[in-house]
UniProtKB/TrEMBL annotation:
Organism listed in the record: Candidatus Pantoea symbiotica
Designated name of the protein: CAAX prenyl protease 2/Lysostaphin resistance protein A-like domain-containing protein
Presence of keyword Transcription: no
Transmembrane segments: 36-55, 67-85, 105-125, 137-156, 168-188, 200-216, 245-268
Record's keyword terms, sorted: Membrane, Transmembrane, Transmembrane helix
Entry-linked InterPro entries: Rce1/LyrA-like_dom
Domain annotation CAAX prenyl protease 2/Lysostaphin resistance protein A-like: ranges: 168-257
Signal peptide span: none
Amino acid sequence: MWIILAGALAVLSPAKRFSVLLLTLATILGLFEDVLDWPAMVLLGAIAVIAWIRVENNARWIQLMSEAALVAIAIGLFVHFFPGFKNPRQVEDVQAGPLSLPFSFSYNFDKALIPFVLLICLPQLFRTKSAPPRLKILWLALLAAIPLLLYIAVKLGGLAVEPHWPEWLGSFMLANLFFVSLAEEAFFRGYLQQRLRQKGGPVAALLLTSLLFGVSHFPGGPLLMVFATFAGLIYGLAWQWSGRLWVATGIHFLFNMTHMLFFTYPALQH
């Protein structure tokens, strides 16, 4: 089921109808496997009705109200607000290495729905006008910022260098790429930064979106919020320069995997 759901996300941009077909299949399997319950089905039905209303009625107030409803739903999915999703744990209180804090992660069906919901609001969610840097070498600088930011975290005592290759790495990669990185980038870069850029320009959009991305990590404490803000600047520039959601998602995934494979994850155990 989870491979099918990941496949639906992978082809959402180039093959929307096929993606919806895969999502429908994943939903049916989710019901049979007790991952989804009836409140989740009611929510999916409501999303479908809102999508139909948007397609059938171009009145400005309908478009505004339906977009507000869909964004509210996306936020609810992001914070696991809605009942009916029984996201299965993949690992529980494990350590990536002896110096790492114990952590758990799940496959999140609700969070995986975010790109579908936001694509209804914004057809150019996955690809929009780019603003590439004048010097292509700045792309290398952007990539170099990933280990640099992690190294700064080491110097500040939040992380330590600790290479590891845990047995559950494959499950982590699947969850992190499709159900974390893509979902978060769809909301913060594909939707929010794009909408803010339309209203207030690229610089303000980049800064505000990065700040909000940092704030969204408040459960991890102030140090994580600061580093998430700077990471958000990296992802935001990747999106702004390329105009492609998958580029920002790839950079986000690369950051998370560099962190996982070469440093204490999610943080240093004191």
